[in-house]
Amino acid sequence: MSLIQGYVLGVAQTADLVLAVSDQDASLRAWSKEGALVLEMQMPNKKPAYSVAAQGMLAAVGTRGGGLFLIDLSSATVLHALEGHTNNVWSVILDGDEVLSASYDKTIRVWDTVSGACTQTIHAEAAVRGLAANEDWIVAGLSDATVRVFDRASGDQRHKLREATGWVMSVALDNMYMVSGANDGKVRVYAVPSFTLVHVLEGHTATVSSVAIEGDSIVSGSDDKTVRLWNAHTGAQLRVLQGLSHYARSVSLLGSEIVSGSYGKSVRIWNANTGALKFALDGTEAAQPITDVLEALELDAAAAAAQEALKAALANGDPGELGRCKLMIIGQGAAGKTSTVRSLLGMKPEKVHISTVGVELRRTSAELWSEEAFDSGFKRQAMRAAALRMRTRKRPTLRSRISRRASSMLPGRRRLSAQTFVAEEEVELVAEAEVAQRFDIAEIENMAGKTQSGQTISFTIWDYAGQDVFYTLHHIFLTQEGVYMLVFNMNELLQDTELALDYLSFWLNSVKLHAPKAPVILVGTHYDQAFDSLQAVEAILRNDLQALRGVKLVKNSLQKVSFFPLDNMSTAEDRAVELRNAVERTASKLDSVSQKISLRWLKVIDDLMMLDCDHVPFEVVQELAEKYHAGDQTDELLKYFHELGMVVHLRTTDTLHDKVVLNPQWLLNKLARVIADDIHVEQIYYDEKLSDLELDDDFKLLRDKGIGTFALLSFLWDDEEVAYLLEFMRDTMLLSDWAFSEKLLRKSRDDGPLYLVSSLLKTARSDDLDAKIAEMDIGLTCVLDFSEFFLPDGVFARLLSLCAQYSGDIGSRKHAPQLAGRQAIIRFGLSVFALEQIDDKIWIRVEKDSDKPASTLKMLVSMFQGARDAMFRGLPWDLLLQSPKNPSILVSYDDIVDAFESGVESMPAIGTKNAKLADFVPFFEDGSLKEDEEENQDGTAESPPSFPLSSDLQYHVFLSHKQVEAGDACNLMADKLISRGLKVWVDQRADGNLSREQMQNSIRASKCYLLFLTKTVFGSRSVCMELETALQAKRPILLVHESDPNRVGFANFSTYPKTAPRNAKHLFREAESMPFQRRLYLAQGFYNELVARIEGAEAN
Ligand SMILES: Nc1nc2c(ncn2[C@@H]2O[C@H](COP(=O)(O)OP(=O)(O)OP(=O)(O)O)[C@@H](O)[C@H]2O)c(=O)[nH]1
Ligand SMILES: [Mg+2]
After folding, report:
1. Which of 429, 430, 444, 438 is nearest to 391 (CA)?
2. Is the minimum distance from the CB of 216 to ligand 1 under 6 angstroms?
3. Of ligand 1's atoms, which has the minimum distance to the CA of residue 335?
4. Alpha helices in 792-913 (DSSP H)
5. Whose CA is closest to atom 7 on ligand 1?
6. Do 774 and 719 share a structural domain?
7. Measured between alpha carbons, how far is 998 from 105 in angstroms, rounded to an integer?
8. Which of 734, 760, 786 is the last residue of a domain?
9. Could you tell me the superkingdom of the organism this chain comes from (predicted)?
10. How many Å lie between the centroid of ligand 1 and the Cα of residue 488?
11. Do 148 and 101 have their domain in common?
12. What letter would DSSP give residue 698?
C-alpha cells in the first residue's frame, strides 16, 4: 500500500494490532502483529495527525487544530468527531467508556465514548503535550516545564512538579510510578501516589519526546535516535535500541513488544526481551483484510467486557453458589470405607488393610472424580457471577450503542442509561493484573452463554476411622450439612448378622442424632464375595434393621435394593459409577450446596486457603475480611464455613476464638495422637524421643489411667499449639484438668499440670471399683435412661470429664476420683457418689452420709443436661428415681412430679406395681431436679420465683470482688442471680461513688456476703474493708473462686488461706469455696448450687 508520507508522531498497540499516525498525510495506519497492513485511513479534517490511542476495536486520534476522532477499526469509520479543542491535540488516551485528550489550547478534556459529549474540562495553565491517567489521577506534561497532577474524579490540581528544566513532552503512569520525558534529555521517575522524585534516568543526549511504562519496565524515545529500556524500580538502563536514522518521536510498550515511530517515516516493532528488531514498517506492506484479525479483536472486546463484569461482580459482593458438599464415610472398622473412597476416586484397589486414624480428608469434584487440591470455588463462582452479569446485561458493541443512543434522543424516546454496570460500592477486590492471571476471561464469555444449571459440585470426603477408640472424636465432626455414606461388609452382614446390625444401628442413630435431615447412602462392600446374595442382604436390612426408620435413605432404584453393592477389589476405574451418580444426585438436591453466598466471603476463604497453613490467628481472617469489606461479618462467615466442615472455629473461649483451623486434618491428626489406637500406640511407644525426653512413665500413665502430663501432651503434639489443643479438647469435653497428685510419677519431677483424657478409660474395667461401689452405703439413686433412643459412645466419658473437673475445682477436701471405663466414684467436697453405665443407662448413686444428697443429685442432673445440650443436642433421656425404700422400684421423675401436682399418693412404677409418692420426698429436698430443663425448653424463662427476704434486708447477696480480676465474672453472676429472682448488690450497679458508710449499710442490708476469690483479691483495700464489715456485721460469708487457669485472676487455691487477713482465715476451714463456672454446661449446676447456698445462708 502507500508509503507513509510524514513523521510518525504517535504509535499505539493492542494485543493484536500496531497503530501509527503520521503528520503530513494526516493518516492512521494499523498492522497486524505479523506485519500485515490492515488499515489505512485519512483523518476527515485532513490535518496532520499527532496522537493515537487504541482499545479493543476502537482508536482515538488527535490532530492539528484541535481535531479529535473516535474510530471503529473494524469498519474504518469515524464514530464521533469530538469537538471542543481549539489547538493541536498532542496526546490522547482511551480508557473504558472515556477518551481523555490533551491540547496546546491548555486544556485536558474528558469525553464519553457513547454520546461523544465532553464531560469534563481541566484547565492546565500551559500548553499540554503529554498525558497519562490511572483510576485516581490524571497527569499532564506541560510547556512550562512542569508536570501537573490532577485528581481524576474532581479535576482539581494536586501537585505541580518542577524538576524538569525544559518542556515536558511525555508522561506515563501506572499504580506505582509516574514517568516523565522532557526536552532537557532526562527521564524522571516519581513514586505514586506521593509524586516524589525517585530516579532521574540519564543516558539520552537529546529531547525525550515519548515515554511508556509497563510493570517493571520503562521505555523512552529520544531525538538522540535511540529508544532505551530501563528498570523502573532501580532506574538502571537495561538496553539501548539503536539503528534509527531519525528522531524517535513515539514509543509504546505492551508485553514483550516495543513499538516506536520516528521522523524516519517508519514504525518499528522490537522484542523488548532481546532488543531484536522484528519489523520495520513503512506502509508498503502487503495488505490483509482487518476481518482476519477481527476474530481476535472481538475476543479482546469480549475479554474487556468480561473483566469489567467480573470486577463489578466482586465489588458488589454478588452471590455465588457454594457448590460444595461434605461427604462423610462412616461404618464399622475394616468394613471397606477407605476402599470405597478409593473406588469413588478411581484409584487402584488396596488389598492390605491400612486402618484409618481419626479421619482422613480428601477432595474431589463431580464429573472428574479424582483427587484434587483445595479449591474454594471462588474462581469458578466469580466467573459465574460475571457471566451472569454479562448475560443479563450483555454489552452491545460501541457502534450499536452509539446508534441506539442517537435514536434514543429522538423526542418521546426514553433515554437509555449509558452506565452498563452499577457497582453499589466501588471496591477493587482483585487487582487487574490478578484478574488476568487467575481468571479465564474467555471462559466467562463462554459461561455467559450457558444455562445456570449443570455446575460441578466439589466434595470434601471425610473418611472416618471405624475403630471404636475414635468414636469419641467423631461426633465433633459429624455435621448437619452433607451426605453420609454408611459402609458395611455384605459378607459379614450375612455371617455375623447381629454384630453387623449393631454397628449399622449405632451409626444410623448417630446420624439421626447429629444430622437428622441428612441423606444416607448405604454401601455394601465385598460384593465380589457375595455377588449372589443381593436379595438376602436386602431382606436383612429391610426386616431387621429397625434403626433405618426415620432415616433419609438414598435407594438404589436400578437394582431395586436399599443399598449399593460394591466390589472394591475390581480394577475397573469406574467400578463405583453407580455410587458416584447417587452421590452427585443426592448432593445436588441439598440446599446447602446450592445456597448462595457473597463472593466476598468466598474470596476471604479463597485467600485463606491460598495461605496453605494448618491454622491462622483470628486476626488474619479479620484483616482479610476487612480488606474485602466484610470485616463486620468475620465471625458469621467463619461459623458458616465451620458448619460446612471447611474450617474449624470454636468460639466458647478466647483461646478457641483466636484460632482458625484451616486444615481440619491437622487437628484430627493431633487429636489422634492422644486418642490413639493400638498400632499408633506402638509407634509412639517405640519412638526414641519418648525415652530421650524421659516420658516413658508419662505415656504409661496416659495409657493406663487416661492421665496425661503437660510434657507428654506437648511431645505428642510436637510442641505445636499446645494451649489451643488443650482448650479444644477441654471444650469438647475430651479432656479435663486433673487437679490431683499422681503417685505413678517420680516425685523428683516437676510435672506441671495434669490432665484427664477420660475416653482412654473406655475399655478399662476395675473389679476393685465394682467392689467398692457395692460396698457404698447408698442414700439416693437415680438413673439417666437413654434406652428410648440410644446412648452414644463418649457420653459417659464426657460426664467423667465434667465430674473430674468439678471435683478438682472444689477448693477443699480433695480426693481423686476413681475412674474406669464404665464406673467411677467421685467426691464433690462433702458428697460422694458413684457413676455407672450399664447398657443404655447411667446410674448415679449418692452416698448416704453425703452433705445434702438431693442437692448433689440436682447438680449432677443439670451438669449432664448441659453436657448433653453442648455435645449431643436432642439426645432424649428419661430421669428415673429409685425408691429409697425398695431398690427394685424405679419411677419416672415426670410421673412423680405429676403425682405431686395432682395430689395423688401413688403412681405407676416401672415393671412393678405402684409406688408410694411419700417414699420419694428425699429427692425433692432441694426443689425440683429438672427445673432448668423445663425453663429452657420453651425458651422463655418463667418469671423468676421471688425469694423471701425479711423486711430489714434489701439484698439477698452482696458481691465483693476485685474489679480488674473478676469484674466480668461478677457482672455475669449478678445477671444470672437476678434472673433467678434474687436481689443482688454489685458495685458497678450502684449509682455514683460509694461512700464507706453507704457500702457498710449495703452489706448490713444484705442477707449474705459473697467474696469472689482472685489472685490479688486480698491486696485490694476496699475488698478487705468490705470483708471486715461483713465479719463484724456477722453476715454469712460465701466463697467463689476463679477456676479458669487462663484468666488473669486465677491462682492456686492454696494461696487464698495464706494471703487472707488473719481474722478471715477461719473461713477457709468452715466454708467450701465454689469454683466459678463460665461454661454453659457447668454453669447451670453452679448457679443452682449458689442460689441454694444463698437461700440457706443463716446469720451466725
Ligand atoms: N474382597 C474385598 N475386599 C475388600 C473390599 N472392600 C475392602 N476390602 C478389604 O477390606 C479391608 C479393609 O478395608 P478398608 O477400606 O481399609 O476398611 P476401612 O473401613 O477403611 O477400615 P478402618 O479405616 O480401619 O475403619 C482391606 O484389606 C480391603 O482390601 C471388597 O469389596 N472386596
Ligand atoms: Mg479406613
Report:
1. 444
2. no
3. 19
4. 795-809, 853-871, 893-902
5. 336
6. no
7. 83
8. 760
9. Eukaryota
10. 10
11. yes
12. H
pLDDT tens, 542-594? 999 999 999 999 999 999 999 999 999 999 988 999 999 999 889 888 888 87
**Is the minimum distance from the CB of 677 to ligand 1 under 6 angstroms?**
no
Is residue 347 in contact with ligand 1, taking CB distance under 6 Å? Answer: no
CA separation, residue 443 to residues 298, 364, 434, 440, 677 (Å): 14, 21, 16, 5, 49
Asked, for residue 3, whether it belongs to a domain, the answer is: no
Q: Residue 719 C-alpha to ligand 2 middle, in angstroms?
A: 28
- Residue 604: phi and psi, rounded to 5, are -60, -50
Distance CA 697, CA 683 (A): 16
Is 84 in the same domain as 116? yes
355 lines ligand 1 (CB under 6 A): yes
Give the tens place of pLDDT for each residue, 113-168: 888 899 999 999 999 999 999 989 999 999 999 999 999 999 999 999 999 999 99
pTM: predicted TM-score of the whole model, two decimal places: 0.62
The three-state secondary structure class of 404 is helix
Q: How far apart are CA 238 and CA 234, in angstroms?
A: 10
Helix extents (H) in 103-199: none
| C-beta separation of 185 from 205 below 8 A | yes
Ligand 1 atom 10: residue of nearest CA? 336
Residues 6+ apart with CB under 8 A from 901: none
User: What CATH number is given to the structural domain containing 812?
Assistant: 3.30.310.200
User: Do 106 and 211 reside in the same domain of the chain?
Assistant: yes
DSSP letter for 184, please.
T
Nearest bound ligand to CA 339? 1
Domain boundary residue, one of 760, 784, 819: 760
- Contact criterion met (CB below 8 Å) for 398 and 79: yes
pLDDT at 747: 60
Residue 76 lies inside a defined structural domain of this protein: yes
Q: What gap in Å lies between CA 245 and CA 258, rounded to an integer?
A: 17
Which run of H or E residues covers position 594?
A: helix 591-594
Q: Among 877, 852, 884, which residue's Cα sits nearest to residue 783? A: 877
Q: Which of 725, 730, 704 is nearest to 715 (CA)?
A: 725
Point out the residues of the chain with pLDDT beneath 70: 1, 294-306, 314-317, 366-368, 372-377, 380, 384, 387-456, 469, 744, 746-751, 811-813, 911-912, 926-928, 930-945, 988-994, 1080-1081, 1099-1100
Count of structural domains within the chain? 5
Task: List, in sequence order, every residue forming a beta bridge with 196; answer none if it has no partner.
Answer: 191
Q: For residue 1058, what are the domain limits?
A: 955-1096
Give pLDDT tens digits for 459-493: 888 888 877 767 777 777 888 888 999 999 999 99
Q: Are 630 and 601 in contact (CB under 8 A)?
A: yes
Using an 8 Å Cβ cutoff, are 41 and 51 in contact?
no
489 CA → ligand 1 middle, Å: 8
Clarify whether residues 40 and 121 are in a common domain: yes
**Three cell numbers at 146?**
512542569
Classify 67 as helix, strand or coil: coil
**Shared domain check, 253 and 206:** yes
Compute CA 994 distance to the chain's CA centroid, rounded to the nearest angstrom: 47
Q: Please give the distance, rounded to the nearest whole angstrom, from the Cα atom of residue 563 to the centre of ligand 2.
A: 20
CATH number at residue 24: 2.130.10.10
Same domain as 120, residue 262 = yes
CATH of residue 1086's domain is 3.40.50.10140
The x, y and z cell numbers of residue 581, run together, are 451418580
Locus of grid cell 492421665: 707
Q: How far apart are the first and last CA of the chain?
A: 116
Residue 884 placed within a domain: yes
Q: Do residues 881 and 919 make contact, with C-beta atoms less than 8 angstroms apart?
A: no
Question: DSSP letters of 956-1006?
Answer: EEEEE--HHHHHHHHHHHHHHHHHTT--EEEGGGSSSPPPHHHHHHHHHTE
- Strands 1006-1013 and 955-960 turn out to be parallel
* Residue 879 within a domain: yes
